[in-house]
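Bit of a strange request maybe. I'm writing a small parser for structure token strings and I need a real example to test against, not something I typed by hand. Could someone generate the tokens for this chain?
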Amino acid sequence: MRRPWDDGPVSFPGYPRPESGRPGGWPADQPGPIPLRPLGVGDLLGVAVTVVRRCAVPLCLAAFLAALLSNGTTLAVLALAGSLRTYAEATWLQDIIDGGSSIPPAIIVSALSGLVVSTVGGVLVAGMAAAGAGSLAQGRDGRGAVAQRMAGRWGALLGVAVVVGVLCSLGLMLLVVPGVIAYLILVLAAPAAVMERAGIGESMRRSAQLSRGHRGRILGVTLLAGIISGFTSTVITTVLSSVVSQSDPVSALLITQLIGTVVAAFTGAWTGAVIALIYIDIRIRTEHLDYALRIAAESDRRARLQDRAPGPDQRPGQRPDQPPDGLIPPPPPAG
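Reply from user aminoacidic:
Good idea to test on real output. This should exercise your parser:
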């Protein structure tokens, strides 16, 4: 039975799907900033910075909105439950340390609500980052690639983000391990939805197929990226919060959450780019996606040269928008 990802359009529509084994006529040049070879951990973490830099506006904006909604949900639940000041003063935490009480239910609900929104947002950002990374891998500039590639895919990506985010969050609530397993299986669903134009179910099945045999490496890379992001966010938030410290605990909490949201715009975008590069790396290792990307890049290069080729009435080096020799209009009369 043929599966959706067995068809040629999977590997970028219009270009042949790589066959198994190393193809002949391997183009030698690397068309863009993403190395078209199996990527090491340093490559994944370093090139992700380039992806964010080239696609900063959509990725950082999406990561900022995801963090804003997550922190806003947490604070809103606390405020509705009348526990915002209790949470800000952290007296409940000291009581737990002293063994006097358990975590208040309102704080648990607020944390879980924020976790669901944050996980959904992270999946969404990873899908958007895949569009930018795919464009850069083909040697394109990357700017505007997210909007172009996402045309007609927002519904599918949002559906994948909600399903994957909810499943992983529920798993984390059940002793953590089920959530980690679900994440390792479904982490590539968002990039598949965007780059392979698959539906929700197809994207999840595709992620399970691609991640099989690579889940230990995925766990290591994503855990390292999470540690780097968390450490960076904590240091920056702590330093800036101390500069604008407030005597009122609630005000201090709101300022800290706001600073953390701004920092998350960059760390969240970078983490999403790492996941997008993991997707490309696994397809390079298992499906020779690098060959399809080189073919796509070569096709783009030839198309650009053809567009710049002189017409029958143009001299070499003359731009196509310039009139041919002998047809240049005379300058307007003086005065």
